[in-house]
Write a structure and sequence with these properties.
Layout: E1 2-8, H1 12-24, E2 30-33, E3 76-79, H2 87-91, H3 93-112, E4 116-119, H4 125-131, E5 134-136, E6 140-143, H5 145-160, E7 165-167, E8 172-177, E9 182-186, E10 189-198, H6 205-214, E11 219-220, E12 223-233, H7 234-244, E13 249-252, E14 259-266, E15 270-276, E16 279-285, E17 296-306, H8 314-329, E18 333-336, H9 337-341, H10 348-353, E19 363-364, H11 373-389, E20 399-407, E21 411-412, E22 425-427, H12 438-455
Parallel strand pairs: 1-2, 1-10, 2-7, 10-22, 18-19
Antiparallel strand pairs: 3-6, 4-6, 5-13, 8-9, 9-10, 11-21, 12-17, 12-20, 13-14, 14-17, 15-16, 18-20
The structure holds flavin-adenine dinucleotide.
Length: about 450
């Protein structure tokens, strides 16, 4: 089978690459290979009753399949260069924002219309944060919610499936450079293409490392973000979330001068497990539909850990800490803030007596046995800092789930076209290390599609 372009991975990066390729040139023959299931076959078995925690499925429906890690995400498209990736370093800030806005237009055209766009522009919280040694980052946020996000993906898939060959449950094993392009090896079959776009996301990080090694593509890696997911009554943050939906707030700790930041805020949302390469960590999402709202808001507090020479395996470090929590708790650990600061573990009774009802069944335990002191101290300082702008954050019953880890794919060396040293091989999305979000990953897909069509 011969294609003009093969796309590896059907997350937002791969989907938007395929979408834009077809839009720019409907005659292109395109194959999309996805290790996970088709959208309608994706189902996480956790139902809160029979299956309460992650059972480590062979293909994790939260992370893999059409829609990628984004399919059951909260669908928060942050339109900003302040966070979510460094796409702007490759293509410029103006172009990056233009592409993110273009992605938003497409999302609106495919079922997202009517959803709300929030913005920090002119917000009074900018000043309030500053007065309390906190910094509010700038962004416009389109919140699709898990439900509308799914509808948008479904609509895009229904249109694309007529024009693109999709291969689901079909992991690509190897990519080999040939005289006229590339041959990919998937489940024992070979497919040729002139150009290849790789967009394998976080779940494909190990595979990406292997491919870079096999094809001698330079990489660098030195960061991992570690922390906890905070869950508290939605009213405590409602003045912020009603106006901004998500507030990305940074605090510089007094003790170590580390930056701690809020991440992925989900008003009235639920805390969920995330399985990356067999390691269970925590994440969160929420629905647009008010009937699916919970009484809680959750968000992550993360500390970025950058390593210097000679240590290179930042993800390995994050994995070891996550493994420790899995070892102690059999999965994710939950602890009341009051128990953490008193130096004692949480128990089932203490959690049950508390005022915050957990939305994830996690094992009550002691996060101080898992997280390094420096990181834990930073998180505790940040909780007290947030308590000044959202009183109640530092209440004893606030729940902390651990660990939350943001694994950063190693950064693959690519040029301004997101093309690696091999002509016609593009590496995009979270798998490239350039992006860490829905909007940046999607925008990177649009960008390479336009480069490919222009240069053919
Ligand atoms: C629960 C959750 C909530 C989130 N909420 C948000 C949010 O609200 N806002 C936000 O900006 N970001 C959010 N994120 C992050 C966001 O989903 C990712 O940044 C985004 O999906 C990255 O897109 P991508 O296309 O680069 O990779 P992915 O979405 O990870 O897609 C990569 C795809 O490639 C496939 N793949 C991997 N290896 C292979 C292979 N060898 N062969 C074939 N296919 C392969 C995978 O199965 C996967 O489907 C969330 C993530 C999770 C897990």
């Amino acid at each position: 089978m011969k294609y003009d372009v093969i796309v590896v991975g059907a997350g937002p990066g791969g989907i938007f690459a395929a979408y834009e390729l077809i839009k720019q040139n409907a005659d292109l023959k395109i194959g999309v290979f996805e290790a996970g299931h088709a959208l309608d076959k994706r189902k996480c078995p956790i139902d809160g009753e029979k299956v309460k925690t992650c059972i480590k499925c062979k293909s994790c429906s939260i992370m893999s399949g059409f829609g990628g890690a984004g399919a059951f995400s909260d669908g928060k498209y942050n339109i900003t260069n302040d966070f979510g990736g460094t796409l702007y370093e490759y293509i410029g800030k103006k172009k990056a924002l233009e592409l993110m806005n273009y992605v938003d237009d497409i999302n609106m055209a495919y079922g997202g219309e009517g959803t709300k766009m929030y913005s920090t522009a002119g917000s009074k919280f900018d000043k309030i944060c500053m007065q309390n040694k906190l910094k509010l980052l700038n962004a416009s946020v389109r919140h699709l919610g898990t439900d509308i996000n799914y509808v948008v993906l479904e609509n895009i898939y229904n249109e694309l499936k007529e024009k693109v060959d999709f291969y689901f449950d079909c992991a690509v094993d190897h990519v080999v450079k040939t005289e006229n392009g590339y041959t990919i090896d998937a489940q024992g079959n070979k497919y040729d293409c002139e150009q290849c776009v790789i967009s394998v996301g976080r779940i494909g990080s190990k595979w990406m490392e292997k491919i870079c090694h096999e094809m001698d593509i330079p990489t660098k890696s030195n960061r991992v973000d570690l922390g906890v997911r905070v869950e508290l009554p939605a009213v405590i943050f409602s003045h912020l979330t009603d106006e901004l939906y998500e507030s990305k707030i940074v605090y510089r700790t007094e003790k170590f001068e580390d930056n701690v930041r809020t991440f992925c805020m989900n008003p009235h949302g639920a805390v969920v497990n995330e399985n990356t390469n067999g390691i269970v960590t925590v994440n969160g999402h929420s629905y647009e539909d008010p009937s699916k709202h919970t009484d809680n808001t959750n968000f992550a507090l993360l500390v970025a850990k950058h390593f210097s020479e000679p240590f290179k395996d930042s993800n390995g470090y994050g994995e070891s800490i996550a493994r420790l929590s899995n070892m102690l708790g059999g999965g994710v650990i939950v602890q009341r803030f009051g128990d953490l600061v008193r130096g004692r573990r949480s128990t089932v009774n203490r959690i049950e007596e508390g005022l915050v009802r957990p939305t994830l069944a996690a094992t009550p335990g002691d996060l101080s046995l898992v997280l390094p002191k420096r990181i834990l101290d930073g998180i505790i300082e940040m909780i007290y800092a947030l308590d000044k702008i959202a009183p109640g954050t530092a209440n004893d019953d606030t729940l902390l789930y651990g660990v939350e880890v943001k694994f950063y794919n190693m950064e693959v060396e690519v040029d301004e076209n997101l093309e690696c040293k091999h002509k016609g091989l593009y590496i995009i999305g979270d798998g490239s290390g350039v992006t860490h979000s829905l909007s940046h990953a999607s925008a990177s897909g649009v960008h390479v599609a336009r480069q490919i069509v222009e240069n053919r």
